[in-house]
């Protein structure tokens, strides 16, 4: 019987349980369970449904039992920045607000009263994104000071699921760095900064690195799913897991982790917290083995996902890609990083409005809308690639696109054309693979990251698009 490892990979639009094991030197994946995710309105706040999601986590575990494939360990990864505050009895304080909610509006200015934007970047190396934990906490402090007073613990989303599984409160480093409250030098909470902002020190747990064992299932979980399991922290930030699964060992490439977001950048040994880097809004997120993910957040396929939802998911992504290709000569472009696309009431209308506002031809058909989005994304990739090359003073010959969005063939073609670089697309399940890889490294199935990446390269289909 094979030795299985389980990744529970929860993204902003769906979650999945994926088992991984080695067979004849290759990594084999098996998806055992999948569920929907998305933010829902609770009163006037956009929230995550953590209770429902945790039930889905349990359902997927039961499914493993049902098919007789019980793994030796599991780990959860999710998106970054979001968190819960727990009171002394472990109850969640307030709504489980998600990062696209507007509660952070103006909170950047509140933070800058305490510390300037430049100094904040110099200390943390993290890009300005209005939804970072630092601004969300300022919103809590301003609008619900009582929650901060009652809070004993802050847990980011994957830490919260690990807590519900084991009863152990832990705080994993890669996810914690997305808070903009961690120092890239000490790789620990920046308590001086936390004090300045007036956030209570005690809510911030000691950080653990990916690969750390968190504990075993609580009695309640054990009884419910019918088995016990060790929970091992992967790079719990999904992007951290995805980057660990980039199938290459040289450094002549730029990666794009393509899902709801497109995260485009490089893996580096040290953080660049310079003024130039700050001006480009490049971030230095903490990665596996203390490496840094030096990247830019680009709005990504969220724009296409939203447009698709607005027509009740009538067409699949492949069909939308084909329609976009048919309308490929449509000339208008949008700035894929404009904040107006973060959480618009209606994405289709927002894209049209943007074109109207900027005096461009307004797209009418689904194909035209999709082509505007795909070409704008590809152009944004090209601009970002240039910025990365300028700031590092070198060039990169290829782009590795990993994650679900690597299946968007038309976008890959556009990316190759716009950047003038070869695009290597795949694996599509990079996040789950990275999650499983961290567990396998812990179990010493792999001796090194290099060995793991070689295996990943050999195990999964990678499609090459020439420039
Ligand atoms: C991708 C991601 C990005 C992060 C964004 C919000 O899923 O984790 O890395 O910037 O979601 O948390």
What descriptive keywords fit this protein?
alpha/beta; single chain; 2 domains; Nucleotidyltransferase, domain 5; globular; 467 residues; binds beta-L-fructofuranose
Heterogens: beta-L-fructofuranose
Architecture per CATH nomenclature, i.e. the level-2 architecture of the largest domain? 2-Layer Sandwich
Order of strands across the biggest sheet? Answer: 15-16-14-13-17-18-19
Number of self-contained structural domains: 2
> Which blocks of ≥5 consecutive residues have pLDDT under 50?
none
Helix/strand structural class: alpha/beta
**Name of the CATH class of the largest domain:** Alpha Beta
- Helix content range of the residues, please? 25-40%
Distance between the termini: 44 Å
Radius of gyration: 21 Å
The main sheet comes to:
7 strands, mixed
Can you tell me the CATH superfamily of the largest domain? Answer: ATPase, nucleotide binding domain
> What average pLDDT do the residues reach?
97
Number-wise, the strands total 19
Explain what you see.
39% of the residues lie in helices and 20% in strands. The termini are far apart. The model has no long low-confidence stretch (mean pLDDT 97). The strands form five sheets. The protein has a seven-stranded mixed β-sheet, with helices on both faces. The radius of gyration is 21 Å and the shape is globular. The chain has two domains: 5-232, ATPase, nucleotide binding domain (Nucleotidyltransferase, domain 5, 2-Layer Sandwich); 238-467, ATPase, nucleotide binding domain (Nucleotidyltransferase, domain 5), CATH 3.30.420.40. The longest helix is centred in the C-terminal third of the chain and has 27 residues, at 366-392. It is an alpha/beta fold and 467 residues long. A hairpin with a 5-residue loop joins strand 15 and strand 16 (292-298). The chain binds beta-L-fructofuranose (LFR). Beta-L-fructofuranose (LFR) binds at residues 11-12, 79-81, 99, 237-239, 259-261, 263, 297.
């Amino acid at each position: 019987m094979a030795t299985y490892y389980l990744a529970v990979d929860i993204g902003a639009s769906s979650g999945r349980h994926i088992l991984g094991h080695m067979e004849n030197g290759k990594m084999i994946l098996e998806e055992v369970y999948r569920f929907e995710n998305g933010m829902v309105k609770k009163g006037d706040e956009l929230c995550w449904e953590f209770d429902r999601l945790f039930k889905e986590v349990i359902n997927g575990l039961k499914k493993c039992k049902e098919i007789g494939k019980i793994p030796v360990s599991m780990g959860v990864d999710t998106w970054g920045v979001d968190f819960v505050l727990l009171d002394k009895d472990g109850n969640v304080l307030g709504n489980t607000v998600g990062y696209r909610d507007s509660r952070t509006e103006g909170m950047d200015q509140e933070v800058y009263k305490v510390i300037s934007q430049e100094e904040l970047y110099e200390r943390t190396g993290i890009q300005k994104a209005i939804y970072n934990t630092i601004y969300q906490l300022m919103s809590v402090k301003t609008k619900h000071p009582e929650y901060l007073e009652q809070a004993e613990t802050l847990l980011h989303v994957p830490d919260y699921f690990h807590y519900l599984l084991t009863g152990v409160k832990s705080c994993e480093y890669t996810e914690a760095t997305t808070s903009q409250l961690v120092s890239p030098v000490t790789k620990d909470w920046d308590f001086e900064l936390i004090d300045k902002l007036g956030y209570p020190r005690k809510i911030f747990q000691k950080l653990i690195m990916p690969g750390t064992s968190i504990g075993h299932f609580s009695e309640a979980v054990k009884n419910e799913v019918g088995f016990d399991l060790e929970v091992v922290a992967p790079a719990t930030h999904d992007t951290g897991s995805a980057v660990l699964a980039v199938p290459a060992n040289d450094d002549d490439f730029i990666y794009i982790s393509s899902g709801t977001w497109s995260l485009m950048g490089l893996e580096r040994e040290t953080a660049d917290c310079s003024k130039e880097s700050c001006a480009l809004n490049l971030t230095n997120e903490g990665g596996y083995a203390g490496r840094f993910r030096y990247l830019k957040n680009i709005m990504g396929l969220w724009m296409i996902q939203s447009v698709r939802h607005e027509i009740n998911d009538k067409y699949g992504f492949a069909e939308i890609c084909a329609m976009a290709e048919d309308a490929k000569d449509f000339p208008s472009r949008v700035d894929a990083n404009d904040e107006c696309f973060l959480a618009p009431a209606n994405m289709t209308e927002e894209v049209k409005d943007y074109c109207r506002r900027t005096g461009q031809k307004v797209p009418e058909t689904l194909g035209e809308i999709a082509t505007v989005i795909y070409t704008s994304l590809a152009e944004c990739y090209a601009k970002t690639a240039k910025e990365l090359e300028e700031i590092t003073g070198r060039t990169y010959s290829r782009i590795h696109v990993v994650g679900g969005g690597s299946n968007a063939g038309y976008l890959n073609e556009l990316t190759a054309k716009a950047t003038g670089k070869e695009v290597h697309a795949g694996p599509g399940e990079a996040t789950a693979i990275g999650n499983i890889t961290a567990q396998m490294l812990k179990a010493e199935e792999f001796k090194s990251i290099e060995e793991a990446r070689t295996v990943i390269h050999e195990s999964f289909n990678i499609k090459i698009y020439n420039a």
